[in-house]
Amino acid sequence: MSRHFQGRVDDAVVVGGGAAGLCLAHWLARTGTGVTLVEAPEGPLRPAERTWCYWEAGTGEFEEAVVASWRRLRVRGPDGVVVESEPAPLRYRMVRSGPFERLVHSRLAAAPAARVVRATAHEVRDVPYGAEVRCTTAGGQPLTLRGRCVYDSRPLRDTPPHRTLLLQHFRGWFVRTAVPRFDPGVADLMDFRVPQPRHGLAFGYVLPLSADRALVEYTEFSRAPLPTAAYEAALRQYTGEVLGLGRFTVESAEQGVIPMTDARFPRRAGRAVFRIGAAGGATRPATGYTFAAVQRQGRAVATALHRGRPDVPPPHGRRALAMDAVLLRALDTGRVDGPRFFTDLFRRVPMERLLRFLDGGSTPWEEFGIGLRTPVGPMLRTAAELPFLVRRATGRSEESLR
Hints:
The protein has 402 residues and is α/β, with parallel strands linked by helices. It folds into three domains: 2-158 and 263-306, FAD/NAD(P)-binding domain (3-Layer(bba) Sandwich), CATH 3.50.50; 165-260, D-Amino Acid Oxidase, Chain A, domain 2 (2-Layer Sandwich); 318-388. It contains ten helices and 16 strands. The chain has a seven-stranded mixed sheet with strand order 6-5-12-13-14-11-15, with helices on both faces. A five-stranded mixed beta barrel has the order 1-2-8-9-10. Helix 2 (19-30) runs parallel beside helix 3, helix 2 packs parallel to helix 5 and helix 6 (318-333) crosses helix 10. The longest helix is centred in the last third of the chain and has 16 residues, at 291-306. The radius of gyration is 22 Å and the shape is globular. The protein starts with a helix and ends in a 17-residue tail after the last helix. The relative contact order is 0.16. This is Lycopene cyclase family protein. Pfam families: Lycopene_cycl. InterPro entries: FAD/NAD-bd_sf.
């Protein structure tokens, strides 16, 4: 393998086989671009199977990898108030990383100019003809991959300087109940009928796969993750006391942490080296959703490169990021009550419009109307404060009085 690739110079090398890397490699291959996707070999560097969710109208490019979808969505307030709606034409979709990877790999295998290499990437650097990725194969041999451009999706070691940093951290169980307990036609996006932490907010999240199977998660937005035992206790309380599932088995579990921050993520790391995915700012700061953004980003990058303009366009607009910065700060300082804020927002704004807003597809007039349906005073105070706060490279948010 090493001798085969040592002399090859691709149009693009994509580092990392997560959602961002797979999406970009797919779109590059679709445009006929010569691309090598380098993924970590089997072992500790390969993440466990993950779940990605997003909403979309119609049939998308990766519909074959969708394992479940829902027409109706629901939010439950702390007092049990229910907000339920069908945000047509949008549907909420679940993708599992295993089927998604197999789908993209099958498409890359059918593309003459595409390659998939299993190796550990150690260094990405500019060179006169573009950029190169220095790797080690699963067998321990050194391997250098060369491209006119390199798109790196590996996670950053540290969060860039920021004013606010919250973590969305969660643990989920894939459960099977002894008797039917779920409505497969409705997904619960936020269920605030769980004990709230002293700082931040917490909610349940239920994605039914059938009448007796579902992904049930406990999620917090706060400054620090919990020990696994604490998530397990919260899930037992939620499934038992709130959902009343009765007897059930846990078929598998997943756990994760997603930074929610107003940090600025540079999308260029060198003359011919670019960052994509979460490392390039694709995670929506106020929600933690990433999958829809990396789909758009991958298609835009491939189109630009095909036209001779290597670049990574911003995954989110300036207005969206500015509004997210205000919301994150208001939540972090406690100026707004998180469960009440989100419940009221879903109650007062048509769900289809709100989901478009959360995905960056709303108009300025729609955004103005959504802003009027939030706690205006605390949000304006927060917006006025932000320009005077210092961006810091520590793991903490910039402190302020409430």
